[in-house]
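[Q] Does anyone have a clean structure-token version of this?
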Amino acid sequence: MITGLPPYQTPIEQSLRCLCGNRFLVYFGGGIGEAEARARERAGQIGARFIDAREIPFLNCECGVFLDFTEDAAMVN
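[A] Here you go.
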């Protein structure tokens, strides 16, 4: 018997790819302890640039495309 859905938790990281192919691992914060260190390590493993969205909410990619790393925008891209 299903008694309900588990409480929704927003993800603390998101992998994104620019139109030019550059890959980013965006960290939104949260988590406990070493969550940021694990996200940085994962970024290195997948060959992505680590972005801490708390410090860098947006930037222009090397190709000139404007990238918005705010949590709501990253979920849509």
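[Q] Thanks! Anything notable?
[A] The CA atoms of residues 12 and 40 lie 12 Å apart.
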